[in-house]
Amino acid sequence: MAKQAEGRRGLGKGWIALALGAAAVWAARDIPLQIGSRKIGDRAEGERGARYRRSPQFKDGKFRNTVPATEVALASMPRLLAASLTDRDRRHPASPIPVVIPETGGDGLYVTWYGHSSALIEIEGRRVLLDPVWSDRCSPSRLQGPKRLHEPPVPLRSLPPVDAVVISHDHYDHLDMESIRNLVDLQAAPFLVPLGIGAHLERWGVPATRIIELDWDERATVAGIEFVATAARHFSGRGFSRDETLWASWVIAGPTRKAFYSGDTGYFPGFAEIGEEHGPFDVTLVQIGAYGDQWPDIHMVPEDGVATHVDVRGGLMIPVHWATFNLALHDWAEPADRAWREAKARDVKLAVPRPGERVDVDNPPAVDGWWQQL
User: Fold this and answer.
1) Who contacts 172 (Cβ-Cβ below 8 Å, separation ≥6)?
2) Coil, helix or strand for 222?
3) Which residues, 6+ apart, have CB-to-CB distance to 54 below 8 Å?
4) pLDDT tens digits for range 78-99
5) 322 vs 342: CA distance, rounded Å
6) Count of other CB atoms within 10 angstroms of residue 97
7) CA distance linking residue 163 with residue 168, whole number of Å
8) What is the DSSP secondary structure assignment for residue 346, as one 8-state letter?
9) Model confidence, pTM
10) 215: number of CA atoms within 13 Å, CB side?
């Protein structure tokens, strides 16, 4: 018994040391980054960097939110790391997540959710791919970091031809080097990205002619679809340095139909302004997962996600940013449960597809609570 107690004390000290080590890494986040990993990407220089510095969103060497957002406090890091090592079962589904083989075809408005925030919007005969992440982990490492909880519903090489690839920001669960490099060869579409991300893409072999970088409220038209980079309340960074690239939500407007993608964001008054200027929208894809009390300003809780849908004057809401990667301390099914409950309370039309399921926006399937059966 004494040996067991001593072993437990040693294990406890080990977790404390690990937590303190993680805190030390976090404290070093502002150390200038010496880019040694290609996955991290690159920094903007020359005219590209000068353009960023002219942005109204750029101040004192960083991109800024219109409404300031608090960061995770250094003092809370050991406690967060310790919490992540407990109650792991409830943060994973007990059964395999059902995956559907996607369909294609038709000239209406369709959304295929591939998992997390990766999705395909088919809008009036055009196809727009959002935040494609097909790698096994959303991490700079192939051995460490959040691992997929389900397989991609379809290989990247089996995607239909797309007209545009849209990126919301440069975090690893939204901007995946391997997926981008494969798409360069598999597709001919341009990449629409917020300011700063073009440097990452060029380092990974994307031709400059296929990169369209936009500041908030800037527009570009591709294949008859208008794209507007709109505000979000988040942050960026793939290494120790932060906020050297911009983050965005997106308006995707065809000749007669419109979609809105929130990207990652905290709730803020800007969504009502987006709804006033660009709405109404036939469909919204809104972040509902990976929230926590320690970072309330940069990820929305599900109720805020529903409020965002209402603010932008959305028709059908499709929740994203949940189910695929374990990125927070809440139960795996909690985001969908809370979003469904709030949608019913606010009379919001909701669709919660399985990964790979294609939603006809004009005839969406009834919510069946499939995640509650796992």
Assistant:
1) 39, 133, 138, 139, 140, 145, 238
2) strand
3) none
4) 666 666 666 767 889 999 999 9
5) 16
6) 19
7) 17
8) T
9) 0.89
10) 13
